[in-house]
Amino acid sequence: MALSFGLRDDLVDLGRDEDGSVVYGRAIYVVAEDATGRRFAHDRYFMDREAEAGRLLVRIQAAVAAGRDLDFGHWNEIDPAYGSAAYQGLDDVGYFQARERHAAREAGEAVPFDQVCDYHFA
Predict the structure, then answer these.
(1) I need a surface site. Which of 46, 63, 81, 114 has the fewest CB within 10 A?
(2) How far is it, in rounded angstroms, from Cα 48 to Cα 40?
(3) Can you tell me the distance from the alpha carbon of 46 to that of 54, in angstroms, rounded to the nearest whole number?
């Protein structure tokens, strides 16, 4: 499986400060992507430490270049790259629509169970 690697970051809620405002941090982690667009996030992340995440990225790339396989005990599949074959495959079966409708229900919206895609998350 040919993979490309990169860094990704997400804003995460770290709690509240003394004034009650939300404090955000930046979680940085390595992502592997295959030729079909499937993506996997490494389970090790670094809070606001891009240099450390970069060093892990370099180590992973070197290990793969040396012929080592990824240890999928440390990788979690995440959403595929938008527009990729993997993304289109999930979209074709209604996965993203079902996830959006489920999230709306979880947020308290009255979304009826009236479409086939609703049963992905029921």
Answers:
(1) 114
(2) 20
(3) 10
pLDDT in tens, 37-51: 999 999 999 999 999
Q: By three-state DSSP, how is residue 18 classified?
A: coil
Joined together, the tokens standing for residue 26 give 């930046």
Contacts of 20 (CB under 8 A, 6+ apart): none
pTM: 0.81
The predicted-structure confidence for 77-86, as pLDDT tens digits, reads as follows 999 999 999 9
- With a CB cutoff of 8 Å and minimum separation 6, the contacts of 59 are none
Which DSSP string corresponds to 46-106? EES-HHHHHHHHHHHHHHHHTTPPP-GGGEEEEPPPTTSHHHHHHHHTTHHHHHHHHHHHH
